[in-house]
């Protein structure tokens, strides 16, 4: 327990150094963050295609520019020149605003991400961070939550059944995994004694929280993959069942904004993981012992983006390795596993924190109590799993189904489930009959 940092031992990172910069420094920082994120998006698209191609023994993009580096730029230009289509049934105002609502928060969250220490920035001493605040991490979580509205409104305003289902599925997924993600960060707040991103980085001067709070780190990594709708959790964009998901009806630049938001969110959650669990911009262990300037000047940018790219590679690796999960299994993972384990771990961390500060409790009993708590939590996850199996199927089959309720026609499955070969004609309650082409041929 002696390796755990105490609140009294934390360095005093003054927030007063933020908000004192001239207007041109603030503006230049904001422009540089915007440019870096756009360039990173182009690079990450190329990087993902190249890495997955190598995993599948293919070449990948290699024509446009050296090593195909300009392929992402060529795809962006092609996408911008495509026809911009607005469906006739769409709510045009919401349809146009939704991609903007999804994209803007992705940029805003980077305002409180620390890239490095205080440096000489065009003759002015300033930290490599746009701004900071006592509740910076809560600010990131709040702004990231706004992006969900863009996805939901995009799916709803399209006037399409598949877009609506994709938007609802995406919102349920992101909200569910934001709960687990937020709980994973509580342990970091307890040990850092602050919600400021710069102070959390300073609190990891001796040991990274990714090791001290390993369960929180694992929960956060799983949650960030679900939060960004990436494989194997890319269920809102499941082509086999929802076509393209919430952005099925989008094209041209509006689709590009959704695409941009996804890849910026990918880098954003990676940057948050780097800041809260891997020491932020601090150099890896041992480097600062042999090189005094490792954590000064602009060199910390190298360590920061190096750690971020490790997480980006993890995203790509998962996409090229794991199959897509079933939706009910995925939601059960979030609500029945991640959230209960997070709650139990928070209780354990809080107890350890009290012992570290007061030191008047027998640690043997504490460890035993924590072990019992974890066992009970894992056991409760499996209670009631088999009680509801085999019930409710006949009741659902007997319930009347109005396929055209709510204005979104969803034809029901044939009686008795799916059939092989030509499907039988479907007769709805209104008297209308739909006959498949294969069924017509069989009748002839």
TrEMBL record:
* Pfam families with a match to the protein in the record: NADHdh (PF00146)
Q: Which InterPro entries match?
A: NADH_UbQ_OxRdtase_su1/FPO, NADH_UbQ_OxRdtase_su1_CS
Transmembrane stretches, by residue range? 23-47, 93-113, 133-154, 175-195, 207-226, 255-278, 298-318, 330-352, 364-383
Q: Does the keyword Membrane apply?
A: yes
Q: Topology versus the membrane, per the UniProt entry?
A: Multi-pass membrane protein
Name the keywords, alphabetized: Cell membrane, Membrane, NAD, Oxidoreductase, Quinone, Translocase, Transmembrane, Transmembrane helix, Ubiquinone
Superkingdom in the source lineage: Bacteria
- What is a single molecular function from GO for this protein? NADH dehydrogenase (quinone) (non-electrogenic) activity
Q: What is its EC number?
A: 7.1.1.-
Subcellular locations according to the entry: Cell membrane; Membrane
Q: Does the keyword Membrane apply?
A: yes
Per the annotation, which location comes first and is thus the protein's main one?
membrane
Provide the reaction this enzyme catalyses.
Answer: a quinone + NADH + 5 H(+)(in) = a quinol + NAD(+) + 4 H(+)(out)
Task: Return the similarity comment.
Answer: Belongs to the complex I subunit 1 family.
This chain's function reads: NDH-1 shuttles electrons from NADH, via FMN and iron-sulfur (Fe-S) centers, to quinones in the respiratory chain. The immediate electron acceptor for the enzyme in this species is believed to be ubiquinone. Couples the redox reaction to proton translocation (for every two electrons transferred, four hydrogen ions are translocated across the cytoplasmic membrane), and thus conserves the redox energy in a proton gradient. This subunit may bind ubiquinone.
Q: What does the annotation say about its assembly with partners?
A: NDH-1 is composed of 14 different subunits. Subunits NuoA, H, J, K, L, M, N constitute the membrane sector of the complex.
Looking up NCBIfam families in the UniProt record yields: PRK06076.1-2, PRK06076.1-4
The name this protein carries in UniProt is NADH-quinone oxidoreductase subunit H
What broad taxonomic lineage does this protein's source fall under? Answer: Bacteria, Bacillati, Actinomycetota, Actinomycetes, Propionibacteriales
């Amino acid at each position: 327990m002696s390796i755990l940092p105490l609140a009294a031992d934390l360095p005093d990172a003054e927030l007063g150094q933020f908000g004192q910069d001239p207007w041109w420094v603030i503006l230049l920082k904001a422009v540089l963050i915007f440019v870096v994120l756009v360039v990173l998006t182009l690079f990450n698209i190329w990087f993902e295609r190249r890495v997955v191609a190598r995993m599948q023994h293919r070449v990948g993009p290699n024509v446009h520019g050296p090593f195909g580096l300009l392929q992402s730029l060529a795809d962006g230009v092609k996408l911008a020149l495509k026809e911009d289509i607005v469906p006739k049934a769409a709510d045009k105002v919401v349809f146009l605003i939704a991609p903007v609502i999804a994209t803007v928060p992705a940029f805003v969250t980077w305002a409180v991400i620390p890239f490095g220490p205080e440096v000489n920035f065009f003759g002015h001493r300033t930290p490599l961070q746009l701004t900071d605040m006592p509740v910076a991490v809560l600010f990131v979580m709040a702004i990231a939550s706004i992006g969900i509205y863009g996805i939901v409104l995009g799916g709803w305003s399209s006037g399409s059944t598949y877009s609506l289902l994709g938007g609802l599925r995406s919102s349920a997924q992101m909200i569910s995994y934001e709960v687990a993600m937020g709980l994973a960060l509580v342990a970091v707040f307890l040990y850092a004694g602050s919600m400021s991103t710069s102070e959390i980085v300073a609190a990891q001067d001796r040991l990274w929280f990714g090791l001290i709070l390993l369960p929180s780190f694992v929960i956060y990594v799983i949650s960030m993959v679900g939060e960004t709708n990436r494989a194997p959790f890319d269920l809102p964009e499941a082509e086999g069942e929802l076509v393209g998901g919430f952005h099925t009806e989008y094209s041209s630049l509006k689709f590009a904004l959704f695409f941009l938001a996804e890849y910026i969110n990918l880098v954003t959650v990676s940057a948050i993981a780097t800041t809260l669990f891997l020491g932020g911009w601090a150099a890896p262990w041992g480097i600062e012992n042999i090189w005094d300037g490792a954590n000064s000047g602009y060199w910390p940018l190298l360590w920061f983006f190096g750690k971020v790219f490790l997480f980006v590679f993890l995203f790509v690796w998962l996409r090229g390795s794991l199959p897509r999960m079933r939706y009910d299994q995925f939601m059960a993972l979030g609500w029945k596993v991640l959230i209960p384990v997070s709650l139990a771990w928070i209780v354990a961390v809080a107890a350890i924190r009290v012992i570290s500060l007061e030191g008047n409790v027998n640690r043997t009993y504490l460890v035993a109590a924590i072990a019992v708590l974890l066992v009970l939590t894992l056991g409760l996850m499996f209670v009631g799993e088999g009680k509801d199996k085999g019930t409710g199927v006949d009741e659902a089959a007997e319930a009347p189904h109005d396929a055209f309720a709510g204005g979104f026609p969803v034809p029901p499955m044939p009686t008795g489930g799916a059939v092989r070969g030509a499907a039988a004609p479907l007769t709805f309650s209104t008297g209308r009959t739909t006959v498949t082409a294969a069924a017509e041929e069989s009748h002839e």
